[in-house]
Amino acid sequence: MSALTVLADGEFEAPGPSIFDFPPLWQGAPVWANKPVLLALLGALLVCALAWSAFARPKLVPRGIQNIGELGYLFVRDQVARPFLGKDAERWMPLMVTLFFLILLWNLFGVVPFVQIPIASHIAFPLVFAITIYVIKIYLGIKHQGFIGYFKNMMFPPGLPKAIYVLLAPIEFLSNMIIAPFTHAVRLFANMFAGHMLLAFFSAVGFWFLFERLTVTGAAVGVLGVVMTIVMTGFEIFIEFLQAFLFTMLAAMYIGGSLNPEH
Amino acid sequence: MTLGAGLLAAEAENPLIPHAYELIVGGFAFLIVFVVVGKILTPRIQKTLEERTEAIEGGIKKAEDAQAEAQRTLEQYKAKLDEARHEASRMREEAREQAAQIKTDLREEAQAEARRLIEAARAQIEADRQQAFAQLRGELGRLATDLAGRIVGESLEDETRQSRVVDRFLEELESTDGAAVR
């Protein structure tokens, strides 16, 4: 904030995309040793630790943290895996649980004080997940439907007038092979990016008008900024949960579509 | 600090271009979580949930069995109770019949006894009467003969005639007074 004070002599400047760029943690450290990378690894370990304490020795009658863990597990199973994977649900639960828990925790980092960066706001992280799902999707599709069958089912869904296929086939190919993985990753990334930006903006407004340049008229704006920061934090928690759910659900949908074409 | 750092930089990085090192770290984190949570822990909770389902289903089955058992026992008890009730009513009926039988028997016996007594008394009376009659006949014969002898003044020596006269008299007597004696 000191930099802001020095630079801005009277003009409020809204935070831009640069707030997502982090320098190395200390002087002379390698370029990758920055805050998001460290938190990503920390988050992965935290998910492992939490899951371990919940599921390492599961009891028939759950106690304490196992209850919470089961709540999450059953949510993934009943809302994500079973509707989209049907009888294959149990087999794919490890991947779905991994995706949901890791993304959820990384997202929630966005509203934890001092941590305050949703990991998925760096596109590399959602991209890793999306590419993995993309590879699995194509592999399973070709394995279960055959190479020709997979693309035939994708581009030429039965029961349509022939002329439509001229239009439909390229659109389907494009949407399934190129757009789907891209939107899969970008949806999560963009939500986290925008959410963090909003929070940063409102807290910057509050900070600027209540501390940096406190004036009678400005104070009202500052108070509004603080109130909006609180409101948006609540909203962010909801969005972070929703996006973790949505990402996992889409993964299940893609895999389910490859296992059982044209349901 | 972050804000300042961002503003100090000449230009922000393009947020849509992934850093290679972040891809590697992301993949690594994904792999760790997948192995630990997905491959090690998920099967455990899957197994536990399955066991729990079985336990609950087993519990329900057990409860159903117990209920069926209770129902069976209840029916058995009811059947037994019915049987006992039947038995009791049957015994009551029997007792009543027996009592009635005993009553009739006793009555018949008493009647027979009474009849016997009456018969005996009647026989006794008849015997007494016969005896008295026989006695009376001798006495009366003698007295009458004496009286007649005295009145007539003539001894009726002839035994046979005497006896005949007496007999005739007595027969007359009997024919007129027989009903009165009885």
Number of strands of chain A: 0
Please tell me the overall pLDDT of chain B: 85
Biggest interface, residues from each chain: A-B, 60 and 45 residues
- Supply the helix-strand structural class of chain A: mainly alpha
Helix content of chain A: over 70%
Count helical runs of chain B.
3
How many structurally independent domains of chain B?
1
- E-strand count of chain B: 0
Structure description:
The complex is a heterodimer of chains A (263) and B (182). In chain A, α5 runs parallel beside α8 (216-259). Chain A has helices at 2-7, 35-55, 65-85, 89-108, 124-145, 147-155, 162-212, 216-259. With 263 residues, chain A is an all-alpha fold. Chain A is built from eight helices and no strands. Chain B is mostly helical and 182 residues long. Chain B has one domain (19-181). Helix content of chain B is 90%, strand content 0%. At the A-B interface, α1, α2, α3, α4 and α5 of A face α1 and α2 of B. Chain A: Belongs to the ATPase A chain family. Chain A: It is found in: Cell membrane; Membrane. Chain A: This is ATP synthase subunit a.
Topology of this protein?
The complex is a heterodimer of chains A (263) and B (182).
Chain A: H1 2-7, H2 35-55, H3 65-85, H4 89-108, H5 124-145, H6 147-155, H7 162-212, H8 216-259
Helix pairs in contact in A: 2-3, 2-4, 3-4, 3-8, 4-8, 5-6, 5-7, 5-8, 7-8
Chain B: H1 2-8, H2 20-152, H3 159-181
